[in-house]
Amino acid sequence: MAGNYGYVAVFAIVGVAFAVISLVMSWFLRPHNPSGEKLATYECGEVPVGPAWRQFRVGYYIYLLAFVIFDVEVLFVIPWALALRNLKGQGLGLFAVVDGAIFIAVLAAGLLYAWKKGALKWE
Amino acid sequence: MTGQGVAFAVLAAITIISALLVVTIKNIVRSALFLALSFVGVAGLYILLNAEFLAAVQVLIYVGAITVLMLFAIMLTQQIMSAKISQTTEWFWLALPMALAMLATLIFFFAMRTYPVNPAPDALAVGTTMPLAEALLKPYLLPFELASFILLAALVGAIVIAREEKPGATD
Question: What CATH number does the domain located at A2-117 have?
Answer without folding.
Answer: 1.20.58
